[in-house]
Design brief:
Bound molecules: zinc ion
Radius of gyration: 28 Å
Strand content: 15-25%
Strand order of the largest sheet: 6-5-9-3-2-12-15-14
Structural class: alpha+beta
Number of helices: 27
Distance between the termini: 24 Å
């Protein structure tokens, strides 16, 4: 465990290292408790660097066994060696020399899951961001690009399969039960992309013929016996390879592409060159064990890691401040892939919901940081929704501003100009400026300034002058260490909609530049005047979510109802209905139910029924529309003095009102959607299941609801339906015989399948109410649970703390107390996972005063613990600051 040194890394301190490592030869002799690693490095002094410049290599908890330069032992007096650093005080006079370093590792005891470790008896590695320094001393930074040759030696019985990056060179027997394999990766890469896997794994093999006719051998490696569960992942991989050729002209470059699924993994997956390592939950799937959401995630993550081959691997980051260069761009690419494979509108709504649920609270709280941060203490804590999801939105805005064709020209230029480079955000922006001839310097603030911009918009119509005016004002809220903000360039897509849903024509416009339905907001205030507008239009704003901003719009309920029925931008139509639901939940709801605004309530429930039954809308879209805003979404919109119990009660009341008003129609629609054809995970079938399960949720609050859900559970023929019914029973009918029976049945059927049991943990961890903290505490002793496995911890503890508003934020603080103890317990093994968990309290200041005080106590109890890791200390101190 790396303890905190308090060191802060700053973007402005970047400078190239004095040395390069053009060649890296690694030999691993694998053993669980004493693996020998021999690194033979070709080291080169950079031009102009003094001969006396010491060579300082990074390490993390290493044991040095041997060191030689050009075949000769290095005298101890010429060295400074500690577990965390190796300094060669007097490197040779020659510009190039060979440095041999031998270290010894104990992969079996590595519970942090960084560097070389064991997962279910398989040796595997995770090196991003700074795990390679736990394997050998190295210049462990992304701008040191090296050509790797790797030799792996292992006992054949223990590890029949030996994989590393690049192409296979040769393999053979070593006698005494040992064997070896050698791999060579011709593409220079940073150390964070190094990977090794060795063990006994089953293989699903296939091949792909690239654009230029080369055949690439594809392999997905899984626990023996689970090969059949990798079929969907393989299909997704081949579709990704084809799509990247068509959409971005990017062809795969090695002879082999391998994916390995492991069960202990800190993240989702890792894009190591030619050898992706995956969390097994994003590889293994079939009808019986995976939900439609799992299938969609597998497709997206397989694509994401594959797309990194160009955006991340061929062009990598100069330093970790540039993380969004590879992540934001690659998320954008995987979003586009999924939109092309599925439904663009549905995908866009889902993306925006995710952004709002995860990135907005980050941007609005103590952990806010720019898409490209300027400083960090622990880089592991910057794999955030801001870097990934907002980073993707920024790339999307570049395309919106330049248009698809110029955007593609800019991307082509990026690949041409920077292939083989460790690049920066400035390099990225420059290619689009060069391709378009436009100045993007104001736009670039999206990378440099934290905080979610807000647009305050009002409209007026002057019938006599036939003029329609939009008054737009931008502001960016202060964020930690950035109190004053500069004005941003915000591309605001809009539409003026008249009677019957037709676009309203205008003869002229002044006050802002408008291109292709996008207002370019660049100043603090714009008065945008449209002339020749006879009738007052309804205005559809931020269409397609063209900019990741919040809107404060004074809009009449009539206009919202109108847009929810007639907006021809699918996203904005969803948004209009969602805004009505949110408004109902936040402010007027009790009054509405109390009869003060009976008209509004009736109109809203009637609209819900009409959307549910609208056959012109895809079922998946209708399911998303009918999903009420989450409790956390409502809390964020309220902003302060949050009482999670009151929000929960309002949401339940609205669900009951909508279900009651539409009971007959929802019932018959529910019945009509039952799966008749054979199971398929495709988007259309998944959409029908989603709508049916959403309707089940509403109907479960109606008389006979528990029996209906129990029947749904028993007759389910796939995991989507089974898990949905179980969640409805556990959440809506907690403690009922039906719920108890279903939970027990699920445990009996899937008790030996850890990934499916994760769903069982998740469902129970998210049961609303004060009793759940006790349930979760008890479940930590369940035989299927393990504090050492990140997937189990995230399913039970992560779900409870981030997705159970009434349980976690229990008024007496018991949820927080359990949470802080558990975070410290997880931290002893895995600081990275603990730090991620701890972000669940990032919005503590928006709670009502009593909960706020208790949340602060819990944070302080973590902060005051002894020997905190750098990861956890960084999160907790920033959260409290
Ligand atoms: Zn990525």
């Amino acid at each position: 465990m790396r303890t905190d040194t308090g060191q802060v890394f700053k973007l402005e301190d970047y400078r190239p290292n004095d040395y390069l490592i053009p060649q890296t030869n690694l030999t691993f002799r694998l053993s669980p408790d004493a693996t020998r690693v021999t690194a033979l490095l070709t080291v080169e002094r950079r031009d102009g660097v003094s001969m006396s410049a010491p060579l300082v290599l990074d390490g993390d908890g290493l044991t040095l066994k041997r060191i030689e330069i050009d075949g000769k032992k290095v005298k101890p007096s010429d060295l400074l060696a500690s577990p965390d650093q190796l300094t060669i005080l007097k490197p040779p006079a020659a510009r190039r020399f060979q440095l041999l370093i031998e270290t010894e590792l104990a992969p079996a005891g590595n519970e942090a899951l960084m560097g070389l470790y064991r997962s279910s008896n398989v040796y595997c590695t995770q090196c991003e961001a700074e795990g390679f320094r736990r394997i050998t001393y190295f210049l462990d930074r992304p701008d040191i690009l090296s050509v790797y040759t790797v030799r792996i030696e292992a006992l054949r019985d223990e590890a029949p399969l030996l994989l590393s990056n690049g192409n296979p060179l040769d393999r053979g027997d070593l006698g005494g039960g040992w064997h070896y394999a050698r791999w060579h990766d011709p593409f220079p890469k940073p150390s964070y992309l190094f990977a090794l896997v060795a063990g006994n794994l089953g293989q699903l093999a296939d091949s792909f013929v690239t654009l230029s006719g080369r055949t690439v051998e594809l392999g997905i490696y899984v626990e023996p016996g689970k090969e059949k569960l990798a079929g969907y992942a393989m299909d997704a991989l081949k579709r990704s390879m084809k799509w990247d050729e068509e959409a971005f002209g990017r062809e795969y470059d090695l002879d082999v592409f391998n994916i390995v699924a492991v069960s202990d993994f800190n993240m989702g997956a890792m894009e190591n060159k030619g050898l992706n390592v995956f969390n097994d939950k994003y590889v293994l799937a079939d009808r019986e064990t995976a939900t439609d959401a799992d299938f969609a995630n597998i497709e997206a993550i397989i694509a994401h890691e594959y797309f990194h081959n160009w955006t991340g691997n061929r062009i990598t980051c100069r330093d970790w401040f540039q993380l969004c260069l590879k992540e934001g761009l690659t998320v954008f690419r995987d979003h586009e892939f999924s939109a092309d494979q599925r439904s663009r509108a549905v995908k866009r709504i889902a993306e925006v919901r995710t952004l709002r649920a995860h990135q907005f609270p980050e941007d609005q709280g103590p952990l806010a940081h720019p898409v490209r941060p300027r400083r960090y203490r622990e880089i592991n804590n910057f794999y955030t929704a801001t870097v990934y999801e907002k980073g993707s939105e920024v790339v999307r805005m570049i395309r919106t501003i330049l248009g698809a064709e110029v955007f593609r020209a800019g991307m082509d230029l990026y690949f041409e100009r920077h292939d083989g480079d460790a690049a920066t955000i400035e390099d990225f922006i420059k290619v689009f400026e060069d391709a378009s001839g436009r100045d993007l310097s104001q736009f670039a603030l999206w990378y440099h300034q934290a905080g979610t911009p807000n647009l305050t918009i009002s409209s007026t119509h002057n019938p006599a002058a036939q003029e329609f005016t939009l008054e737009i004002e931008q502001s960016v809220p202060p964020t930690p260490s950035e109190s004053r903000k500069r004005l941003m360039h915000i591309p605001l897509a809009f539409g003026l909609i008249g009677a019957g849903g037709k676009a309203v024509e205008y003869s002229g416009v002044e006050g802002a530049s408008i291109e292709d339905g996008v207002i370019h907001v660049r100043k603090r205030r714009h008065m945008v005047r449209f002339s020749g507008v006879a009738e007052r239009p309804a205005v559809s704003l931020n269409r397609g979510f063209s900019a990741p901003v919040t809107l404060s719009v004074e809009q009449k309920a009539d206009d919202q109802f109108f847009l929810a029925r007639h907006d021809n931008d699918a996203f904005s139509r969803w948004q209009a209905f969602n805004t009505l639901l949110t408004d109902a939940l936040i402010s007027a709801f009790r009054e509405i139910l109390g009869g003060k605004q009976p008209d509004f309530a009736a109109r809203l429930t009637e609209l819900a029924g009409s959307i549910a039954g609208d056959e012109t809308l895809e079922p998946a879209y209708r399911a998303l529309a009918l999903a009420l805003p989450g409790e956390a979404d409502i809390a964020r919109d309220i902003g302060r003095n949050i009482d999670p119990d009151a929000i929960y009660a309002a949401r339940e009341a609205l669900a009951l009102a909508i279900g009651t008003a539409n009971r007959g129609a929802f019932s018959s629609l529910y019945l009509s959607l039952a799966d008749k054809a054979a199971f398929s995970p495709d988007a259309a079938s998944a959409g029908r299941r989603a709508l049916r399960n959403t309707l089940l949720d509403y109907l479960s609050l109606q008389p006979g609801g528990a029996a209906l859900a129990a029947g749904h559970f028993q007759s389910a023929t796939n995991m989507t339906d089974r898990a949905a019914a179980l969640a409805v029973l556990a959440h809506r009918h907690h403690g009922s015989p039906e719920a108890i029976e279903a939970l027990a049945a699920f445990e009996t059927i899937y008790g030996s399948d850890p990934l499916v049991m994760d769903k069982w943990f998740q469902i129970q961890a998210s049961v609303p109410g004060p009793q759940t903290v006790d349930t979760v505490m008890a479940l930590t002793n369940h035989p299927a649970f393990s504090m050492g496995n990140p997937n189990r911890v995230r399913s039970l503890i992560g779900t409870f703390s981030s997705a159970n508003q009434t349980g976690f934020h229990r008024a007496d603080g018991e949820g927080y107390r359990f949470f802080s103890q558990t975070v410290l317990e997880v931290e002893k093994r895995n600081p990275q996972v603990a730090a991620r968990l701890a972000t669940a309290l990032r919005s503590w200041r928006s709670l009502e005063p009593l909960r706020q005080a208790k949340a602060r106590e819990a944070l302080l109890s973590i902060a005051n613990a002894e020997n905190l890791s750098a990861d956890l200390r960084d999160i907790v101190e920033r959260t409290l600051a």
